[in-house]
Amino acid sequence: MAPLIYFVFFILNALLDLLKWAVIISAIISWLVAFDVINLRNNAVYQISRFLDAVTRPLLAPLRKVIPPLGGVDITPIILILVIIGVQSFLLFPLRNTLLSILG
Which Pfam families match (predicted)? Predict the structure, then answer.
């Protein structure tokens, strides 16, 4: 049973890592578009931007309702990354260890 628990928590941790990178890359692409380094007329950039926006928007929208932009700077991606790291550090691994100790 322990290998199955390790595998499930490995997958959960990997998904959270991918989400963290999606938030970082989405923020960088939005900055590059805002400063006109790249533009959305390029089909590849547009597709990547749309995909990352579709992945991150449902998680960032509730935070944007609570946290206003500070001087025109949106800090919600930073807050979301901190939440993801907190879930990984303080919830995911202790929960795995607790399940392993309960099951033997």
Answer: CCB3_YggT
Q: Check: CB of residue 23 under 8 Å from CB of residue 81.
A: yes
The 8-class DSSP code of residue 75 comes to: -
Q: Do 78 and 86 form a contact (C-beta atoms < 8 A)?
A: no
* C-alpha span between 24 and 29 (Å, rounded): 9
For 57-75, the pLDDT digits (tens) are 999 999 999 998 888 889 9
- Predicted pLDDT of residue 70: 87
- Report the Cα–Cα distance between both ends of the chain, in Å, rounded: 9
Q: List alpha helices for 1-104, DSSP H.
A: 2-34, 43-66, 76-86, 93-103
Which one-letter DSSP state was computed for residue 71? Answer: T
CB-CB contact of 98 with 33 (8 Å):
no
